[in-house]
Design goal:
Blueprint: H1 5-21, H2 35-43, E1 58-66, E2 82-86, E3 92-96, H3 100-111, E4 117-121, H4 131-134, H5 139-147, E5 152-154, H6 164-172, E6 183-184, E7 190-191, E8 200-201, E9 205-207, E10 218-223, E11 226-234, E12 250-252, H7 255-268, E13 274-279, E14 283-284, E15 302-303, H8 305-312, E16 319-322, E17 328-332, E18 342-346, E19 352-361, E20 366-367, E21 373-378, H9 387-404, E22 407-410, H10 426-442, E23 446-451, E24 472-474, H11 475-481, E25 487-494, H12 495-504, E26 518-519, E27 523-528, E28 543-544, E29 547-548, E30 554-560, H13 561-564, E31 577-584, H14 585-596, E32 611-614
Parallel strand pairs: 1-4, 4-5, 5-8, 11-13, 13-16, 16-18, 23-30, 27-32
Antiparallel strand pairs: 1-19, 2-3, 6-7, 9-12, 10-11, 14-15, 17-18, 19-20, 19-21, 22-24, 23-26, 25-30, 25-31, 27-28, 28-29
Helix pairs in contact: 5-9, 10-14
Enzyme class: hydrolase
Family: Belongs to the 5'-nucleotidase family.
Keywords: Hydrolase, Nucleotide-binding, Signal
Length: about 625
């Protein structure tokens, strides 16, 4: 492969076709450390060893990776578009980063001088996207990723937002079954969506009827005798965080068991260098992208599901590219054989990319792990924009503009949501209030609204993003906050069930990583984080409109369709009775803005003081 993106594409496409026809699934990186090779590397330069045929025995393969792009073609606004950088003096600095125009430039610049270069991703490239991509079912983002020369990606849970059939269309192409084709070619005919040039991998997602992987389980990248295998999978818990309708007929399997299974398959095919792309992640000890994850010891700076997966997965796997938690880390977590193994994640929204050097031994066909180096790099907005990305964004913006630029409300200051960094966010309060208002229009008995924090995808920023003016909230900005098209539902729950649901925020599947529901005005309680599990909810503190929650009383509760189905581990909310389905959540938010804000009287950021947190 050449160093630049333009001449790379024909050869890469040809290689993919050949590999796929051979029954393989291409791409890859990394492999097990060989003591002899490691010792040789200590004694001489890695590129100095020469094989019998005059070729250098080892070659450095560049692995560029990222994750959780979520259709952020345009640079994300507010805190969603910033990364934290630790300074030499110990202070921290916020840097504006991300967006397709800059990510493309970063990747293309990084590839220069690297004849062996692979670009891989760890899922959630689409789904929960801003309007520019989401309005068109993420076709613009897939087109952009193709132009960036992405080689391979695992699926994430958000790749299932519109169901398995839509994921298949994203992979294989074709116009949307309901919305059709969005553009016309030069002859005036419908321009069909071409699909992803790169393979999406679904090793641990199988069809119930056949037991076969939904898409390809693995991919083998080949270049001048170098072979690297990629196994791609999503988190086993995907059914808990996506709509049940979208994954009917599918099974999601244990991550470690799946990795071990396909590591053996690749090994039998002579592929000794293996990288796992997994949409599951961890929680780093620091939010700074450049902190030392291996301090005081290897992998000590990371916790969460990925740590256990990495410690238990087959030593045949040489590296992990991870995602899901939107965090940044580069760690070496020992494998079951006690050998160091790189585990990386590059934040989200294209704000970072990871550059990993894999030293491939041509004789053993494996990666010399002691030679593996990796680091996260900021996708800075001070670098030149990629012209083809700018043209792509402008083209789709013209189609979206009539809808995206329409004002829907007014705010007097920033209203943080996803970027708040606190259990309760000002935007979470606003959304819950909007859903309660919509629910009351359907049933005056509606008493309280609950909103899942993961459904809030961004912040509302006071500064104008375009020509709309400061403080103006556009339809596109509101869509970016709530892109899922969930409906606002009403159900009956007893006080006891409501209390159980509040406890499920911090217990069961949510104990390790609490999911604090955003609550409407009138509901208050204390969250005591010094305690563990369900005890973190101080029972006697729960009040609705100043009165203690009555365990035996029935309350009319508003919640989105995702929570009404028991999503995010809130099984108790799925037991509601007397359901009533309202409008979609975005309409509820926009209606609330229309009724409660104007240019003269904008909405002030809520205080986010409904939950008292004890630390």
């Amino acid at each position: 492969m050449s160093a630049t993106s333009q001449p790379r594409r024909p050869r890469r496409r040809a290689a993919r076709v050949l590999a796929l026809t051979a029954g393989l699934a291409t791409v890859g990186a990394l492999a097990a450390a060989l003591p002899a090779a490691a010792g040789q590397e200590q004694g001489q330069d890695r590129m100095a060893a020469v094989g019998h045929h005059g070729k250098k025995r080892t070659v450095d393969v560049q692995l560029l990776s990222f994750n959780d792009f979520h259709g952020n073609l345009q640079a994300p606004a507010g805190s969603s578009g910033q990364v934290t950088e630790k300074q030499p003096d110990g202070t921290e600095k916020k840097i504006d980063a991300g967006g397709a125009e800059y990510l493309a430039t970063s990747l293309r610049t990084a590839r220069k001088g690297h004849p062996y270069s692979i670009t891989a991703a760890a899922g959630d490239l689409i789904g929960a996207s801003p309007l520019l991509s989401g309005l068109f079912h993420d076709e613009p983002s897939v087109e952009a990723l193709n132009k960036m020369d992405l080689d391979v990606s695992s699926v994430g849970n958000h790749e299932f937002d519109e169901g398995a059939a839509e994921l298949s269309r994203i992979q294989n192409g074709g116009c949307h079954p309901k919305d059709g084709c969005y553009e016309k070619d030069k002859h005036g005919k419908a321009k069909e969506f071409k699909g992803a040039d790169f393979p999406y991998l679904t090793a641990n997602v199988t069809k119930e009827k056949t037991g076969k992987s939904l898409l390809k389980p693995y991919f083998v990248w080949k270049h001048k005798g170098v072979k690297i295998g990629f196994i791609g999978l999503t988190l086993e818990g995907t059914p808990d965080i996506v709509s049940a309708d979208g994954i009917k007929g599918l099974k999601f399997h244990d991550e470690v068991e799946t990795i071990n299974k396909y590591a053996k398959v690749l090994d039998k095919q002579g592929v000794k260098s293996i990288v796992t792309l997994i949409h599951e992640g961890g929680s780093p000890a620091s939010q700074a992208y450049n902190y030392d994850c291996d301090s005081p010891g290897a992998g000590d700076g990371i916790s969460g599901p990925i740590a256990a997966i990495a410690k238990n997965a087959s030593p045949k796997v040489d590296a992990f590219v991870t995602g899901h938690t939107h965090q940044a880390y580069v760690c070496t977590i020992p494998d079951p054989a006690g050998k160091p193994r790189m585990v990386t994640s590059a934040s989200s929204y294209g704000k970072l990319y990871t550059d990993t050097t894999l030293t491939y031994d041509r004789k053993t066909k494996d990666i010399v792990r002691t030679g593996v180096q990796s680091a996260n790099h900021v996708v800075s907005r001070t670098q030149p924009k990629a012209a083809d990305m700018t043209r792509l964004i402008d083209r789709w913006n013209k189609l979206a503009a009539p809808i995206a630029n329409r004002p829907v409300g007014y705010i007097s200051g920033d209203i943080p949501g996803r970027g708040a960094g606190t259990p309760e966010s000002p935007l979470g309060d606003l959304i819950a209030d909007a859903q309660l208002a919509h629910a009351k229009s359907l049933d005056p008995k509606a008493a309280v609204a609950l909103m899942n924090p993961g459904g809030i995808r961004s912040d509302l920023v006071h500064k104008a993003s375009g020509s709309e003016g400061d403080g103006v909230v556009t339809y596109g900005e509101a869509f970016t906050v709530q892109p899922f098209a969930n409906t606002v539902n009403l159900v009956d729950l007893t006080g006891a069930q409501l209390l159980t649901a509040l406890r499920q925020q911090v217990s069961g599947s949510n104990e390790a990583s609490p999911k604090i529901l955003q609550i409407s005005d009138g509901l208050t309680y204390t969250l005591d984080m010094t305690k563990t599990g369900a005890d973190r909810i101080v029972t006697d503190s729960v009040r609705l409109n100043g009165k203690p929650l009555d365990a035996n009383a029935t309350y009319r509760v508003a919640l989105n369709s995702f929570l009404a189905g028991g999503g995010d581990g809130f099984a108790e909310l799925g037991k509601g009775t007397k359901p009533l389905v309202g409008a979609d959540d975005l309409k509820a938010l926009n209606d609330y803005f229309a009724a409660n804000s104007s240019a003269a009287k904008p909405i002030a950021p809520p205080k986010a003081d409904r939950i008292t947190v004890v630390k």
